[in-house]
Each structure stands twice: as structure tokens, then as C-alpha cells.
Amino acid sequence: MEGETKKTFVVTRFDPDQDEAPRTDTYEITVQPDWKVLDALNHIKDHVDPTLSHRWSCRMAVCGSCGMNVNGEPKLTCKDALSDYGDTVEVAPLANFPVIRDLVVEMEGFMEKFKAVKPWIMVAKERAIEEGTYRQSPEELDAFKQFSMCINCMLCYSACPVVSAEPDFLGPAAIALGHRYNQDSRDEGNAERNEVFRDDGGVFACSFANECSEVCPKNVDPSGAVQQAKLLNVIDWATGLVVSRGGK
Amino acid sequence: MSNARPRLDAMRPSQPGPTRTADPRPPDKFPGRGNYLGYVLFGSCGVFLLLSSILVLRIVWALAAGEAAWNDLMAQFQNPIYVAYHVLAFVGLVWFTLRFFSLFPKTQPAKIGPAPRPPDAFFAVALNGAFAVVTAALAAILWGAVL
Question: Is B58 on the interface with A (CB under 8 A)?
């Protein structure tokens, strides 16, 4: 077929039953010009080595399952064109995560961090149905909309040097999600979330490398969210010194 | 005896106990890739802030110790090592400040209290403009053009 080329894939492998540590396998395959990195991995699994394990689902940059390190950079492999790479492509599991098998990483700690920021609308008293729906202006929506576009692909965690040095750090995506709810005009849970943000491993652990925002495949700005959460927490803390919170 | 094949539980791990995982590895190509280099250099400029603060204390101490101590310190500052340090610190701290200004807009939330966030251009003009004015004024004072 026209445009076909050969590429060599150096893929990290790890079998917890057999391998002491991750190793690499090399596959040389013929690729189509319009393939993404994920297409090549699926081709290897389907036609060359069925033991290769990797996560994927939607193939359209929505589910966030197929995050991997490609040539040393965290990428969403279903969105990452093979034509952007040379003859050799190195594929490894996301950095900063324990590896379960081959390219599949352990997500449990990541999910716990998400739960910690209470990512849901909190209100002191539910509105009665007769009072109608919660209304929100376009300006109020703009305050948080970009932070709600996160697909939980974990690329930002893989790029973060603070997560690497301090594994308890809440991390970019979880803080961006908490900040998203803090900025939501319908929410009244700021005080609870800010306690989590100000705790050890919270927003002040971030030293602003800004790489999380660079690698985000959905153009969310998690590093901006973390810095904004820092500023709002300082204001919230300073305000609390002079204004009574009514016991909350 | 049944001839049926024994049933296999495909989801059962081949060995009992929790799955063993490989340790996480740090981000690849750190600190040479993307923002990492700028981030590390930005943090390293803290050395200039520390050393320059110590030098300011030394200057204040010399001021309090009389004219001889002051003249002695000024003579020491003619040393090429001091001159080289000050050039390096000047370049480093100007870059530090400009990088901080470039990152500053994203640290501002959509609203602080009732006040809406100004556009990015406002931050760029205000911060860099103030920096240029203050630097020019200080340079004029130090060169004796003013005061």
C-alpha cells in the first residue's frame, strides 16, 4: 500500500510473574501513513505478539486510557501520529506510576487522590424542586469550564517532577478538578476542599514546573489551576484571621 | 469420571497474593526536556537571592562600621571574582524576574472577590513596564545621573 514504511518499536515489557524488572522487546513492523502510535501497538498485539498488554478504549482522545511515554514524553497514543517520529519509536509505561504489566500502570493511588478533593457539587441545603434549577451565567461557566475538560489520562502526573519526589502530592489533575468545583458558582464546598488543599501534599507542594500543562492532550491548564488554588487559599486563610467563619 | 476439561478461571492470577508491580520511574529526560530545564534554572536562581541578601547585609554592616570599613568593602568589590559574580547574578535575576512575569498571568483566577481578572496583556504591560522603570531609575541613581 502506498506510503507504507517500516518502523522499529522498542517496547517496555514487564511480567510480574517472571521479570525482576522491566525490560524491552523490539518489533519491526510495517505501518500505514495515517496510523497513530496506538494503531501500531494494536497491530503488534494482534499480529506479532499477543502477550503485549496495554490499555485503550475509545481511540478518539476522550476516555484517557491510552496514556504512555513515547520517546520519553507522556502522550495520549490514540492522538499521537506515528508520522511525527523517526524510524525508531520507544514506548514505555507512564512515569511516576507503578507498573502492573508491560504498558499498564497501577491507577489506585491516582483515584484515591481524586476522591480526596471531593469532586462533586456540595451545597449546605438542597434547593427545593419548586425553586427551579440552578442557574449559571456564561461568565460563571467560563470561570471553571476549561478545568472540567480533563479526561483523567494521567499524563500530567507522569510529567510532574513533584509527584516523582513526593508521591503523596495530590497532583495536577486532582487539584485542577477540586479547583474546578471551588470555582463553580453552584458549589459551597470551598472550605472543605481548601482544608485538603492546604494539607501536607496539597497545593503548596507544587513548585510550578508547568510541564503538566505542556503535556495535557486536552489543553487544560492544571498548573494554572494549582497556582490559582494557592492564591485563593492564601486569601482564604488571611480572611479567616480577621473574619469569623461562623463555626465552619 | 467426566471427560469434560477442567474449568480455568482466566481472571485468577497464576500466583496467589497481590500482583507484584515494578517500581515507578522518574520522568524521562529530566531535566533536559520541555520546561524542566527552565524550572531547574529558575529554582537555582535562589542561590543568587541568598548570596545577594548576604552581600546586602555585609554592605549594611560596613556602612555601620564607619568610612574605613566602607572603603575597604568597595575596594574588595573591585576584585574580578566579585565583578563576575555581580554580572552573573544580574543576568540570572533579570531572567528569573522575566520568567516569573511570564508565568504570573496563569496564577490569577477568573475572579478575586468581586473583581474580574484583567486580560493577560494587562499583566504583561504592567509587570514588565514597572520592572523596566524601576531598573532604569536604579541604574540612573547608581551611575550618579540622579540624586
Answer: no
Domains of chain A: 5-105 (3.10.20.30), 108-244 (1.10.1060.10)
Q: Provide the CB-side half-sphere exposure for B12 (13 A, CA).
A: 6
Cβ neighbours of B34 in A, within 8 Å:
73, 159, 211, 214-215
The upper half-sphere exposure of residue A215, i.e. CA atoms within 13 Å in the direction of its Cβ, equals: 33
Neighbours of B101 (CB within 10 A): 16
In chain A, DSSP finds a helix count (H) and a strand count (E) of 9, 7
ipTM field: 0.85
The predicted-structure confidence for A171-209, as pLDDT tens digits, reads as follows 999 999 999 999 999 999 999 999 999 999 999 999 999
Question: What does the alpha-carbon distance between residue A109 and residue A203 come to, in Å, rounded to a whole number?
Answer: 17
Residue A117 pLDDT: 95
Residue A200 cell numbers, joined = 501536607
pLDDT per position as a tens digit, B24-57: 999 999 998 889 999 999 999 999 999 999 999 9
Whether the CB of B112 is below 8 Å from some CB of chain A: the reply is yes
Q: Cell 574580578 appears where?
A: B80
